[in-house]
Amino acid sequence: RLLVLPDMMQNEVFMSFTFYSTVLIVKMYVVAIITGQVRLRKKAFANPEDALRNGGLQYYREDPDVERCRRAHRNDMENIFPFLFLGAVYSLLEPSPAVARLHFGAFCAGRLAHTVAYLLKLRAPARSVAYGLAQLPCFSMALQILAATLPYC
């Protein structure tokens, strides 16, 4: 029996977007797991019940390494969620598959590099450069979406 895919799943650009988006979501899960592991290792819990379960209320506290992981995760949410919207709409514009892959791949690579730079405390400007490079394809997609939708305003 042949598997019949919905139209969107036959769209090469959308499938590329789906791949890179899924890589980024998995990366976010990994950062969340790392945050939890750092909490356990550093015994720095955000909730009193967690501290009590793991040694006592003295561990209901903040830790700089845990906060660094949390900032990396928050930065992901601030940047990956808009990419998910922009990439999905951009996919509907029927861009060149090669150009679309370049947009999606560059964003994904920039976000991966940003996380590595953040969590490994790489020297400046590594994190800023990674952030900036990831923003370029988002601006490009946003401008193309605005240009395509302007006649409908």
TrEMBL record:
Protein name: Prostaglandin E synthase
Cofactor needs: glutathione
EC number per UniProt: 2.5.1.18, 5.3.99.3
Annotated function: Terminal enzyme of the cyclooxygenase (COX)-2-mediated prostaglandin E2 (PGE2) biosynthetic pathway. Catalyzes the glutathione-dependent oxidoreduction of prostaglandin endoperoxide H2 (PGH2) to prostaglandin E2 (PGE2) in response to inflammatory stimuli. Plays a key role in inflammation response, fever and pain. Also catalyzes the oxidoreduction of endocannabinoids into prostaglandin glycerol esters and PGG2 into 15-hydroperoxy-PGE2.
Gene3D superfamilies found in the cross-reference section: Membrane associated eicosanoid/glutathione metabolism-like domain
GO molecular function: glutathione transferase activity; oxidoreductase activity; prostaglandin-E synthase activity
Ranges annotated as spanning the membrane: 13-34
Membrane topology according to the record: Multi-pass membrane protein
Pathway membership: Lipid metabolism; prostaglandin biosynthesis
Reaction(s) catalysed (UniProt annotation): prostaglandin H2 = prostaglandin E2; 2-glyceryl-prostaglandin H2 = 2-glyceryl-prostaglandin E2; (5S)-hydroperoxy-(6E,8Z,11Z,14Z)-eicosatetraenoate + 2 glutathione = (5S)-hydroxy-(6E,8Z,11Z,14Z)-eicosatetraenoate + glutathione disulfide + H2O; prostaglandin G2 = (15S)-15-hydroperoxy-prostaglandin E2
Top-level taxon of origin: Eukaryota
Pfam families per the UniProt record, alphabetical: MAPEG
Principal localisation: cytoplasm
Location within or outside the cell: Cytoplasm, Perinuclear region; Membrane
Alphabetical UniProt keywords: Cytoplasm, Fatty acid biosynthesis, Fatty acid metabolism, Isomerase, Lipid biosynthesis, Lipid metabolism, Membrane, Oxidoreductase, Prostaglandin biosynthesis, Prostaglandin metabolism, Transferase, Transmembrane, Transmembrane helix
Cellular component GO terms held in the UniProt record: membrane; perinuclear region of cytoplasm
InterPro entries: MAPEG-like_dom_sf, Membr-assoc_MAPEG, MGST1-like
Encoding gene, per UniProt annotation: Ptges
One GO term (biological process): prostaglandin biosynthetic process
Family per similarity comment: Belongs to the MAPEG family.
